[in-house]
């Protein structure tokens, strides 16, 4: 089953323009712009594309956008302390890399733009907001508080899913009312859709600046459920808003890699900061199917080595200071009985603030 690092940006209400109104002639012009340099094929999944010609710039609000190559807070990035004795996934090994100023773009994303006459930058799975979406997450509970980012170390697990299902482990940041929410989702997922949806840079808007990290690559290493912390793999991800530009940056630590950013121009609400931050899992299944597994597919009570976890949880406050989460402002929420959260709190110096989450799925209404 597909196992990949994903990015999603959801903008449910953008009153300033209509992407679907783009003409065929405009699309054909963009297709010519997007044609990759075939002599610079990174591997079987990626091509090298000029940084100024990547899919991000199909977005109508980025026509005159000036690329930011590095966040202004780069010198302030702190390396995370090790959270266990296992293995940190080497995100830089996704591709072989491209010669600057080119960046690796997944071929699916290029085909996506070459085959469609209208933009689908906002088309995540069309069912993503239906009632059959289930979550188990830890979220902020203080109203009218502004946040500028979040971080987490997420254990990596493979799962077996059926067609038309997905299971995600992620951080997501939101702002705006329900019918006009801006949201950024970042993490990893297992997706039974395979060919639909709008992840990574399939959706115009995310600007990739790193020449070595290709988003959308299947992850070849993942944790086996063997009861040993030595066999745990994890991905350490951060999302932080740049104080000077308002752009939302995605980067990793251990090692420090600045991958790219969501420009502030594409948002109506998140440009002013996030009002809600969530950590945890999300699944979707059609209404006539059992729910898929979440996390590692095991309940939190099974503990480290079996249960999925998030650790080193942190939030960037309104003054752009990065801190460990304050559990007094967090609350747990589980939407069905076949998933759970557990052991929420400060574990130790290695894991920091952490929790277990997930479950086997199944008939969640029973």
TrEMBL record:
Listed Pfam families: Neprosin, Neprosin_AP
PROSITE patterns attached to this UniProt entry: NEPROSIN_PEP_CD
Signal peptide (residue range): 1-21
Keyword field contains Nucleotidyltransferase: no
Lineage top rank: taxon: Eukaryota
Alphabetic keyword roster: Signal
InterPro entries per the UniProt record, alphabetical: Glutamic_endopeptidase, Neprosin, Neprosin_propep
Neprosin PEP catalytic domain location: 128-365
Protein name, entry field: Neprosin PEP catalytic domain-containing protein
């Amino acid at each position: 089953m597909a196992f990949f690092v994903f990015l999603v940006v959801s903008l449910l209400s953008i009153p300033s323009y209509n992407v679907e109104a783009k003409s065929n002639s405009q699309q054909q012009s963009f297709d010519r712009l997007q044609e990759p340099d075939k002599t610079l094929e990174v591997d079987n999944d990626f091509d090298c594309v000029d940084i100024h010609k990547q899919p991000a710039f199909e977005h109508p609000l980025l026509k005159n956008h000036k690329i930011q190559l590095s966040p202004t807070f780069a010198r302030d990035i702190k390396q995370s302390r090790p959270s266990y004795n296992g293995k940190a996934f080497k995100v830089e090994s996704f591709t072989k890399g491209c010669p600057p100023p080119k960046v690796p773009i997944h071929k699916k994303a290029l085909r996506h733009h070459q085959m469609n006459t209208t933009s689908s930058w906002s088309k995540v799975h069309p069912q993503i907001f239906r009632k059959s979406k289930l979550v188990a997450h830890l979220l902020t509970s203080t109203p009218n508080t502004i946040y500028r980012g979040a971080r987490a170390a997420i254990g990596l697990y493979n799962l077996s899913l059926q067609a038309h299902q997905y299971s995600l482990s992620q951080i997501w940041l939101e702002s705006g009312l329900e019918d006009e929410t801006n949201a950024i989702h970042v993490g990893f997922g297992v997706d039974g859709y395979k060919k639909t949806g709008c992840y990574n840079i399939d959706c115009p808007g995310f600007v990739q600046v790193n020449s070595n990290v290709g988003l959308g690559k299947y992850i070849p290493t993942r944790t086996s459920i063997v009861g040993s912390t030595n066999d745990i793999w994890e991905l350490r991800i951060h999302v932080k808003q740049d104080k000077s530009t308002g752009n939302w940056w995605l980067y990793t630590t251990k090692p420090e890699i600045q991958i790219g950013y969501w420009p502030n121009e594409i948002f109506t609400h998140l440009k002013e900061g996030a009002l809600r931050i969530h950590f945890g899992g999300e699944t979707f299944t059609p209404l006539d199917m059992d729910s898929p597994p979440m996390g590692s597919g095991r309940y939190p009570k099974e503990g480290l080595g079996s249960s999925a976890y998030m650790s080193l949880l942190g939030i960037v406050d309104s003054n752009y200071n990065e801190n460990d989460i304050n559990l007094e402002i967090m609350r747990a929420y589980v939407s069905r009985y076949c998933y759970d959260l557990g052991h929420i709190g400060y574990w130790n110096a290695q894991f920091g603030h952490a929790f277990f989450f997930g479950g086997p799925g199944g008939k969640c209404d029973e």
